[in-house]
Amino acid sequence: MSTTHLAAVDFGQGLSSAWSSIANFVPKFVAFLVIMVIGWFIAKAIAKVVGVVLNKVGFNRLVERGGIKDMLAKSKYDATDIIAKIVYYAILLIALQLAFGVFGPNPISTMLTAIVAWLPRAIVAIVIVVVAAAIANAVKDMVGNMLGGLSYGKVLATIAAVFIWGLGIIAALNQMGIGTTVTMPVLVTVLATVGGVIIVGMGGGLIKPMQQRWEKWLGRAESELPASKAQNQAYQRGREDATRGSEPETEQLRMPHTPMGAGAEGQGSMGGATRRPGSEGPGPMPPTGGQG
Fold it and tell me: Where is this chain compositionally biased, Basic and acidic residues type (predicted)?
């Protein structure tokens, strides 16, 4: 009798604890779903607002100047859509973090908290890359136009653009918190490789080819220098001629304007003083009294 009674008591306690767990879980799950639905609506609305604002400020034009549009040529999203999607999923992650927080401390909430704390750094890094791309493209165009008459102008323009790209990428990686672990070893490896190639080349078989190459480059630079000077002088002369050509027009605008009939009226008044109206010329002199 006692064993049967204990089994019935244990079963009843297990059933009551199960119902208690379900009663505690269901409200939390409902709160989880409500938070996710509200977060989804908020994410959709904010992503739409971000897309409209970026289109208003001309974000796509800035991206086109940076040359990133070519990278997204085969993508179905443009730069504005990508930023809007990033904002959308970021807000969903925040909503997911809040929703899992309903269940108390758990590994998923810890992971989501770390990701949400990292999101502002990622957004700033994206902005840094976009701005660096725009600056690099502008510098490339400027240097290419300034040195367009030289054979090595495009090479220098490309080197300047790549250098600015590198600075922007390194700054973005540092902003994301992975600069010290990735950029420094890569930079040291690249510099060590370049230094090793130079040392081995200079100490080995690259001495003669490099000497010939330098002589060729210096000769080309010396031959192109007079042409560059002549082009600059021609440009200066053109500006001076344009300035001189505009000076007579300015003087004509400053001179007082004389009416067309003013000269004729003056001449008519002067003629009236010596000649009577209706006469063709001065009349004969009257005889003097002594001749009578």
Answer: 237-254
